[in-house]
Write a structure and sequence with these properties.
By secondary structure, the chain is an alpha/beta fold. Helix content is 37%, strand content 10%. It contains eight helices and five strands; from the N terminus they run ααβααβαβαβαβα. A five-stranded parallel β-sheet has the order 1-2-3-5-4, with helices on both faces. Strand 4, helix 7 and strand 5 form a beta-alpha-beta unit. Helix 1 packs antiparallel against helix 2 and helix 2 packs across helix 7. The structure holds thiamine diphosphate. The site of thiamine diphosphate has 20 residues, from helix 2.
Length: 285
């Protein structure tokens, strides 16, 4: 990213990238006939901010030892990660067309042994953040300068392993670890009418603070400017950080927003075209 651009131009460029990513995501899920949508759409602005501004990575050298690490602990949102990695130059954007095919490097959940740029295989909720803690601790022990970023879900936070990881990260003072919670207030199933579930997590700020973390809130976690302001905030010495990013599941496509039915639903051709037009793109023929 050209840092010489004014802030406003830079932010608008990133917003445009996120819009393009949303178009690619919805198109890919339609083409594959499978995959998750609501979670990827809520997370894509966070991934755009990380990969196009915050993180120190080199697509030409994806195994560079001192690169910043990213772990998609909510691994079911793989299509969002793949799309951003492709747009960032880790592999051709055209490869998104292979998503979820049996011999593809782009499986339904990220596989670090298949795809350059994927730092951890994830998908079993609750586990990714433990790997992030291990990587951050490893960096400290080896005196390496990189940071570790990890995206977790609010539904995922019902997993006890998340809180074991939280405890250990605080114990070892991992101020090189930055977790972001994609707080879209929905998980796989909904509540209201029909299948009732309790809200994924209440008061995450209080809980993380109780575990000794440095806690920040992003009021609109789908707003690039707010995300950049948060993620550029210097670390709190001796403490891991978490940003609770208030997001909207299905963000950007009005009939998918805040509707758990779109957690993993495939859009019809009509729905795809409606979505593409709403995102400023062209409909498919
Ligand atoms: C251990 C485990 N249990 C269940 C699942 C199935 N599963 C996939 S996504 C999901 C809901 C996750 O909700 P959340 O973390 O809030 O993700 P988001 O709403 O951002 O998609 C569940 C239960 C899983 N992947 N791993």
């Amino acid at each position: 990213m050209n840092k010489a651009l004014t802030d406003a131009q830079h932010i608008e460029e990133l917003r445009e990238l996120a819009r393009t990513a949303r178009q690619l995501i919805v198109r890919t899920i339609h083409k594959a006939g499978a995959g998750h949508l609501g979670g990827p759409l809520s997370a894509v602005d966070i991934l755009t901010a990380l990969y196009f501004d915050i993180m120190n990575v080199d697509p030409d050298n994806p195994s560079w030892e001192d690169r910043d690490r990213f772990i998609l602990s909510k691994g079911h949102s793989a299509i969002a990660l793949y799309t951003i990695l492709a747009m960032r130059g880790f592999f051709p954007v055209s490869e998104l067309d292979t998503f979820d095919a049996i011999d593809s490097r782009l499986q339904g959940h990220p596989d670090m042994k298949l795809l350059p740029g994927v730092d951890m295989s994830t998908g079993s909720l609750g586990q990714g953040i433990s790997a992030a803690v291990g990587m951050a601790l490893g960096a400290k022990l080896q005196g390496r300068p990189f940071r570790v970023f990890c995206l977790i879900g609010d539904g995922e936070s019902q997993e006890g392993q998340v809180w074991e990881a939280a405890d250990i990260a605080a114990k070892y003072g991992l101020d090189n670890l930055v977790v972001i919670m994609d707080f879209n207030k929905l998980q796989q199933f909904g509540w209201g009418t029909g299948r009732r579930r309790a809200s994924p997590i209440a008061n995450p700020e209080e809980r993380w603070a109780a575990f000794g973390w440095n806690v920040g809130v992003v009021n609109d976690g789908n707003d690039i400017a707010q995300l950049l302001a948060a993620l550029h905030t210097p670390a709190a010495p001796g403490r891991p950080s978490i940003w609770i990013a208030h997001t909207v599941k299905g963000k950007g496509i009005h009939f998918m927003e805040n509707d758990y039915v779109w957690h993993a639903k495939v859009p019809s051709l009509q729905e795809l075209n409606d979505a593409l037009v709403e995102l400023g793109g062209k409909p498919c023929i």
